[in-house]
Every structure is written in structure tokens, then in C-alpha cells.
Specification:
Number of strands: 3
Helix content: 40-55%
Shape: rod-shaped
Distance between the termini: 95 Å
Radius of gyration: 26 Å
Structural class: alpha+beta
């Protein structure tokens, strides 16, 4: 009696064909997760820095706060952009005048402005194949709040 031939190595060939696709998909999911983490981090950093700008208009303090909140992805204080804009022209950079006519409190005009903080981040995928396909992606986190209190100098919340 003759025994039927067993297909030898068929499973191994199928496994060898599927594993690279599976690994690429798995690493792509990790890269996507890193992008979402980076986007969330820079948005949080922009929001926290803008919240500080409400009461402390010292640009160095605001930049340090933004960089501190995004330190895990390598954002430096010099990367954080701070801008004060007039409420009437919120899309025009640096549109907040130093002195607003009729400002009896002599607050320098900053109180009636909007603080806009922008934190940019250049995301690059770790996977070489995915990185070559999509290239570097610039993610931007931006937040804006109306300034409530004019404070510049040593008396500000962060001091010095």
C-alpha cells in the first residue's frame, strides 16, 4: 500500500511570505502611535504655555514652559513661538500695539490682546520603508488665550 506524499515545506513558504507584511503592518501601527503621541504632546505644550501667557507675558518664561511640557519629544525653548495679537486682528502676527489709546490703567496694552503660542515638531517615521514613503511630516500645535493680567519681570509667577 502506498502512502500519500506529505507537502513538505509548504507551511514554511507561506510563513516566509506573510511575515514581512505582518511585521511592516505592526511597525506601521507603532509609527502611527508615535505620530499621535507627538501631536498630542505639542498641543498640550502649546496649551500650557498659552495658559502661562495669560498672566506672565515674559517670552522666555512662556518658551521654557512650552519646551518643558514637550521635553519627551525634544522640543527646545527656541522652537516655541510666542505672539501677541490684537483681538480685532487675530490672524495678523504681532498685531498687538504696545499702547492702546484710552488705557487708563497703563498696562501697556498687552491685557487686551490674545497670546498665541505655536509649537512645531518634525515627525519622522522610524521604519525606513514608511519613512521613505511619507517623508518628514511637520506637526504644529497652536493655542491662544486672551491675556488677563499684564506681568513682565521679576514679580511674574515664574519670577526672575
Amino acid at each position: 500500500m502506498r502512502t500519500p506524499k506529505q507537502p513538505r515545506g509548504q507551511s514554511m513558504v507561506e510563513f516566509a511570505l506573510i511575515v514581512p507584511v505582518f511585521v511592516l503592518l505592526l511597525v506601521g501601527i507603532f509609527d502611527f502611535g508615535r505620530a499621535v503621541y507627538g501631536y498630542s504632546t505639542i498641543n498640550n505644550a502649546a496649551r500650557e504655555a498659552a495658559r502661562l501667557a495669560i498672566v506672565d507675558q515674559t517670552v522666555a518664561h512662556i518658551q521654557a514652559e512650552g519646551a518643558g511640557q514637550a521635553a519627551t519629544i525634544g522640543i527646545l525653548a527656541a522652537d516655541v513661538e510666542v505672539d501677541f495679537r490684537a483681538i480685532e486682528t487675530p490672524d495678523t502676527p504681532d498685531s498687538c500695539a504696545a499702547d492702546i489709546p484710552g488705557d487708563d490703567n497703563n498696562t501697556g496694552g498687552i491685557v487686551f490682546c490674545v497670546a498665541v503660542v505655536t509649537v512645531p515638531y518634525d515627525y519622522e517615521a522610524v521604519t525606513p520603508m514608511i519613512g521613505a514613503l511619507v517623508g518628514p511630516i511637520q506637526l504644529i500645535g497652536e493655542s491662544s488665550f486672551k491675556v488677563d493680567f499684564n506681568c513682565e519681570g521679576a514679580e511674574c509667577p515664574l519670577g526672575e
